[in-house]
Amino acid sequence: MQIYLNGKFVPKEKAVISVFDHGLLYGDGVFEGIRAYNGRVFKLEEHLDRLYRSARAIVLDMKMSKNELQEVVLQTLRVNNLKDAYIRLIVTRGEGDLGLDPLKCPKPSVIIIADKIALYPETCYSKGLAISTVCTRRNSPQAMSPNIKSLNYLNNILAKIEAIQAKVSEAIMLNLEGYVAECTGDNVFYIRDGGLVTPPHAAGALDGITRRCVIEMAKAQGRRVEEKLFTPFDLFTADEVFLTGTAAEVVPVVCVDTRTIGDGRPGPITKELIQSFRDLTAREGVLI
Ligand code: PXG
């Protein structure tokens, strides 16, 4: 496996960065998780736009144009001979000293890892997931914008630990007011009377690219889509619940906090969206 590291391709074993890198010392950096399907990179421009926005928000100068970065993402896939892949694009503040001052980090570290994708088991889609709300609240958007996809995922990791201990697949994270925000690496939707509802960004939800695709697809199918605040009560009483994310794609949820959703099987609208999303990933994307 060849890793892109600061302008060069190096074998995995040699892909190392400094212990003085502020990405490691402080989680000071941003990242993207991107998928390639059958020789095309899905929504690459959108992912690059989000990465540059995250970088802008943390005052990190990428020192590389979007086009240049797009080209090295594609090159990383080519040198690794990958057609279906999970791509992790990481930009850290770079090497500095032990203090917080980012001005002492003159050069960001750029890392691109492209690996075979570990697909979710098919049963997740055919049978659906059980998930639970956890005690760990989502970081307040007033303290840290959920739209900065930063290298500091401790908030989500703490929630993930709770989900694992509870033996469920994902954690629903509430915001400080008790409204549903998102899961640890996925956005959440529910369906009632044929319409979709998902939390707004202000609730603490990432502007997920899969979320955007689902909103667009549902609207194109003539469905109502609302971005509004809701509580776990709305999930418990929903007709259908599903999660969206680059890794998960669209995945049904059939149990929330031990309560059965609908009839306990993936619902018809979720199934339709899973299929529409698969069709979209099969035909759209930047050619490798
Ligand atoms: N919310 C959070 C907090 C995320 O990190 C999503 C929603 C979904 O966004 P996209 O753009 O992917 O539709 C994410 C992104 C993984 C993994 O390995 C997933 C993410 C981040 C880090 C790792 O499953 N998801």
Would you write up a description of this structure?
By secondary structure, this protein is of the alpha+beta class. The protein has helices at 22-26, 44-57, 66-79, 122-127, 154-165, 209-220, 232-236, 268-283, and strands at residues 2-5, 8-11, 29-37, 40-41, 85-92, 109-115, 129-133, 170-174, 180-182, 187-192, 195-198, 225-227, 240-245, 249-256, 259-260, 286-287. It is built from 8 helices and 16 strands. The strands form 2 sheets. Strands 7, 8, 9, 10, 11, 12, 13, 14 and 15 form a 9-stranded mixed beta sheet that branches. Strands 2-1-6-5-3-4-16 form a 7-stranded antiparallel beta sheet. Strand 14 and strand 15 form a beta hairpin. The mean pLDDT is 97. The protein binds 3-[O-phosphonopyridoxyl]--amino-benzoic acid.
Structural topology:
Elements: E1 2-5, E2 8-11, H1 22-26, E3 29-37, E4 40-41, H2 44-57, H3 66-79, E5 85-92, E6 109-115, H4 122-127, E7 129-133, H5 154-165, E8 170-174, E9 180-182, E10 187-192, E11 195-198, H6 209-220, E12 225-227, H7 232-236, E13 240-245, E14 249-256, E15 259-260, H8 268-283, E16 286-287
